[in-house]
Write a structure and sequence with these properties.
29% of the residues lie in helices and 22% in strands. By secondary structure, the protein is an alpha/beta fold. The strands form three sheets. Strands 1-2-3-5-7-8-10-12-13-14-15-16-17-18 form a 14-stranded parallel β-sheet. InterPro entries: F-box-like_dom_sf (IPR036047), F-box_dom (IPR001810), LRR_dom_sf (IPR032675), LRR_FXL15/At3g58940/PEG3-like (IPR055411).
Length: 435
């Protein structure tokens, strides 16, 4: 018998002996004797209210829940009848217990309890989280608080990797040097100065995901980060610049109209149109989603038939709220398509507009000029009402897509689209749906 076999045999006998001893002691507390890393893994999966209830199990369990590595304050923590201020009082009661007994790291904190935080109390809690090495800080759905002021030292937490803020006023410290560990940033209904937002984005060297929604009073939105991979914007802005962001993989931009402009929108003499300026650095993008108002913004200036560099790696294009009565939007739509030679999937949602003869003539000219979607396999068009411009675009897709496999058209008020269109692909399957 080898030495290894002898050791394995002894280990097996010892394990069997321990198992026999535990079986002969049915009242032994196996859970309490688990390593803390396992107990923490189990308890953080429970609602915080249930984790706190484990304190009644025994004196040994009285304060175990206060040492968790993650804390989630949500609706499950409190009765629905409690007001916002009372809920925050309950939050503080729990927080004070945590501060009294917690002596390890806290990796994640999430507040989504529809409460009304007191700024001073919240500041002290954030300072405590910073001292405990917080990695994920999420503030959502704060009831009735508009522009909750956050302490500037939140933006100096050295290990912060995920930051999500809702309804806050953010002030970046004057000596801000960056968040070196931040990978994901999401700001919703946040008040932040344009230059502060630019500095925040620029000085997070490993930032990969950026989501901006309903940000207040953005005049010029500059996105400058070489590591950024995912960008989603649903906000008002008057101008935008994507620079040094060549690794962007997915871009989704919905521009909310600005009715009072503070920045002149005239195109400077000799300056390229917004379409070329915005997309010239997105050569590696694989998913692109644009809205109608942003298409209108991109049309500022003379729209080229196509632009360079082309978006060679883009297989999926999603265009929303397209107005087929707007020659500018249709021209941008076509220019983008012509600059995506390898697009395989096209999704378009249509916003109802009246027909326009210039749009009709433009689309007919494209059909006659040999324009092709050489790689297009799947097309979905939603919201058609039957205008001649819409029908001509469907005709363009069918006539110029030799590899098209499926076309799905969802219509308002039409039983089905006419089947008189020429089809470049003999195998295309057309599905017509009524909304």
């Amino acid at each position: 018998m080898s030495a290894k076999e002898s050791v394995d045999e002894k280990r097996g006998k010892l394990e069997n002996s321990n198992a026999t001893q535990l079986e002969s002691q049915p009242n032994v507390d196996r859970i309490s004797n688990l390593p803390w890393v396992l107990l923490d893994t189990i308890l953080v999966k429970l609602p915080l209210r249930d984790a706190a209830r484990t304190s009644i199990l025994s004196t040994k369990w009285r304060y175990k829940w206060t040492g968790l590595s993650k804390f989630f304050f949500d609706d499950k923590c409190f009765p629905s009848s409690l007001s916002g201020k009372v809920r925050w009082g309950e939050c503080m009661r729990i927080i004070n217990q945590i501060r009294s007994y917690h002596d390890g790291p806290i990796e994640k904190f999430k507040l989504a309890a529809y409460c009304s935080p007191n700024s001073s109390d919240l500041d002290q809690w954030i300072l405590f989280l910073k001292e405990r090495g917080i990695k994920e800080f999420i503030l959502q759905d704060v009831s009735s608080i508009r522009w909750l002021k956050l302490p500037s030292f939140l933006f100096s937490c050295p290990q912060l990797s995920c930051l999500e803020l809702f309804g806050c006023m953010c002030k970046i410290p004057s000596d801000f040097v960056g968040l070196n560990c931040l990978k994901s940033l999401q700001l919703t209904e946040v008040s932040i100065r344009t230059d502060a937002l630019e500095s925040l984005i620029r000085n997070c060297p490993i930032l990969e995901r950026l989501m901006l929604s309903s940000i207040e009073r953005l005049a010029f939105l500059r996105i400058h980060n070489p590591n950024l991979k995912y960008l989603k914007i649903n906000s008002q802005f008057e101008n935008i610049c994507l620079e040094n962001s060549m690794f962007l993989d997915s871009v989704d931009i919905h521009k909310i109209p600005v009715y009072r402009t503070t920045v002149a929108q005239q195109v400077e003499q000799g300056r390229p149109c917004n379409l070329v300026r915005v997309f010239r650095c997105l050569t590696g993008i694989k998913r692109l989603t644009l809205s109608g108002d942003f298409l209108e913004f991109l049309a500022n200036g003379e729209v080229p038939e196509s632009f360079r560099p082309v978006l060679n790696n883009l297989p999926m294009l999603d265009l929303r709220e397209v107005k087929f009565g707007s020659l500018k939007q249709v021209a941008v739509l076509v220019s983008v398509l012509r600059s995506c030679p390898n697009v395989e999937e096209l999704i378009i949602s249509v916003e109802k507009t009246y027909s326009s003869n210039p749009v009709m003539e433009f689309l007919v000219t494209l059909s006659l000029a040999g324009f092709t979607f050489s790689q297009l396999k799947v097309a979905r068009i939603r919201g058609i009402v039957g205008t001649v411009n819409e029908m001509e675009f469907i005709n363009l897709v069918l006539a110029c897509s030799p590899r098209l496999e499926t076309l799905t058209v969802a219509t308002y008020g039409l039983e089905r689209i006419p089947e008189i269109f020429f089809r470049a692909s003999k195998d295309v399957k057309i599905t017509s749906l009524t909304l």
